[in-house]
Amino acid sequence: MIAYPSKTRSPAPQILPRLRFENRRQGIAPLITRLKDRRRRRRQAKLARTLKGERVHMRKRKIALAMSVSAAGIQAAASGAVEPRFSSSAQQAWMIETRTQTDSMRASAELKRAMMEEEGVRHDVYRDVAGNLTVGVGHLVTASDGLSLGDTISDERVMELLEADLEHAEKTVSDLVGDLPLFQHEFDALVDLVFNVGQGSVSQERSPKLNEAISAGDHQSIADELHYHSAGGATAKGLIYRSERRANIFLNGSYEDPRMTA
């Protein structure tokens, strides 16, 4: 019988699964990172679409209102009556320039978009620049939230926390200004202030000039008191830009990020 050289033997069957596992383990970390980034982008895109739909809905209602009042103004002008005034601001050209009481006002969709840009949207609990546990859109975690550092929340919980924080800030602003009527964009700027620095920071004891300006009905002086630049005892560049943005919202109804034009 002719003897043929033996073929090279393959690794034992029990070794193969271990080799495959080792190869997979080496490439699994970047894969997990990519998957987490993809999920985060999808969540943020979903939130952006929700806000966009809300803005479009509000804009349609305001445009319809402006068109109806414009038609009434034309009829009034034809009869010799005084025509309603409109804002000269390009961003608010479609709005009637009328200050109203704040007890029924709510934060606009434009403000929510600006706040999301400033605060960011975080689904995991982290520490902010002042060392406070934070999650969602700048929500300061409390004991009642039942959250700890590193915990993760859903999109729905992010929006629930944001709406609850806004409701508290809206009530604080209404109490702060009392009978002083405001434009929507002026109300928004004050809501952002309370949301950003807290209710205690706008009290008579800690912000006497702001309260004096409100009592005097001096809107320019109110705008001058919207600048808060410190967090945890240190000046933060992000807060400088945010204060500038807040003042632009109050004075001009401009919600755009000043960093984009800096």
Any overview of this molecule?
With 262 residues, the chain is mostly helical. It is 55% helix and 6% strand. It has 7 helices and 5 strands. A hairpin with a 2-residue loop joins β2 and β3 (139-140). The radius of gyration is 27 Å and the shape is elongated. The model is unreliable at 60-96 (pLDDT under 50).
SSE layout and pairings?
Blueprint: H1 15-78, H2 109-119, E1 122-127, E2 133-136, E3 139-140, H3 155-177, H4 184-197, H5 208-216, H6 219-224, E4 230-231, E5 234-235, H7 237-252
Antiparallel strand pairs: 1-2, 2-3, 4-5
Helix pairs in contact: 1-2, 3-4, 4-7
- How many strands? 5
Average residue pLDDT: 77
- Bin the helical content: 40-55%
Shape: elongated
Question: Which structural class fits the helix and strand makeup?
Answer: mainly alpha
**Radius of gyration, whole Å:** 27 Å
The low-confidence runs, each spanning 5 or more residues with pLDDT under 50, are 60-96
- Gap between N and C termini: 89 Å
> Biggest sheet: strands, sense, closure?
3 strands, antiparallel
Which strand order spans the largest sheet, edge to edge or round the barrel?
1-2-3
Instruction: State the order of secondary-structure elements, H for helix, E for strand.
Output: HHEEEHHHHEEH
Beta-strand fraction estimate: 5-15%
Note the total helix count: 7
